[in-house]
TrEMBL record:
PROSITE patterns: PROTEIN_KINASE_DOM. This is Protein kinase domain-containing protein. Residues 174-442 form the Protein kinase domain. It holds the Pfam family Pkinase. It comes from Grammatophora oceanica. Residues 97-119 are annotated as: Disordered.
Amino acid sequence: GRTTSASASTSTTLLAAAGAPIITEWKVLGNGRVTGTVKNHPAIDDGDIITTSPLADPTLCKTNGIVVTKSGSQYRLAQPAIKKEKVSKKNGAAAMAMKKKNGVPAKEKKSKPAPVVEKKKKESIVASIPKQSLPLVSKEKQLQMDLAKARIDFNLNGQIVGTTQGSEYVLAGKARRSTSGKSSIWTGYKVDDETGMPIGDPLTVKISNNAEALKRETDNYNKAAGLLGRGGQSFVSFVEYLRPAGKRPPLSKQVAIVMQQGDIDLKAYLAENGALTGKSLREAAVAAVQCLQALHGAGLVWTDLKTENFVVMKDSGNKLSFKGIDLESAMPQKDNPVDYSPEACPPEFAVSFLEGQGPYFILETSYDIWSLGMMLQEMATGKCMFAKKSPSQITKLLREDDFCPNLNAVEDEKLQDLISKCLQLDPKKRPSMTAILLHPYFLTTGLGPLSF
């Protein structure tokens, strides 16, 4: 299941077609936004003061430069605001005396102070328009302008998920399919009860016709979250389960779950940036181990542990963290699987599957230990061991008696040893969670203290 930030290509295209809005007398705020006087904006009158949504890179702000917000909106920066120096009363009096001496009137027309924007209790994700700058515009008109800007900036499509106030979310962009193909994945924003404006951080909204699958995923998230001391915090935050998903068809006949959203899924991150190294690699490994620790502690087998089911989160300092997602296929230990991913399944399941016994395979925690080994190998090398192979080719390869994973590309010897133990062909020889937690890779890597 991929959960990445929503694309704002539509808003960017619309703005580019008319020319990027120009901001004059601008300055960068501490929260990474830019404020100033705007013109050439499709939804805001020339001369109004706006505050943009957070910039993708505030360090790029310069005169006549183009800046891009995290949502994809573009602005051209004209001349910046001039910093006014503080003048003491003594110096001020001296200046006035000099003006009188030179025949300049002491009293000059004072410039009208810039309007002050009061912080709202519920801050919208969109660039708000200060009410003071539009004295002749009604609240209703201003709200319509804000909503119009939000639709452009965040590519909102107008679809509302949820049926009651406090539990409504507006969808953005286009949907993508989950890795299982059973659900559609959207980006959404919580709707403010009073204004109807989107607020807060982007969320992931997963919609499906399969109520049983999403109810199972909801229960699995709740079970994992209940084990906070045993890795439950390593999954994305679960927000709520919605049944029905909306008021009108097709949503009225579907169900939805709402979750925290990551910046990019780990598989895509590896494709763009290459293998993880050093502390980032160990922290990603810790996140995977903690997720298994929570699920196994709850009596579950994930059956779908893979890089595509982890998201990368970036904080303001670009520090990476990793969270698990997609528990739709997690099943109780000793139960049967409902789905499988070829790159994550162990050889014993591949044999059973090719014999037509896949639906009756008995799940053990050793299934996930094999998946962990495969995931660690991919993170350490940047490449899946079965890259460019079809699902059927992978399954047949796993069935071979002489199948031997090649770990030569894994540079860290301790990690290579841990992976080799996880990829034992005999499931009974694979390490327990306790043995994994006590492995030298986690305890003696020289990367500082580690707590599970």
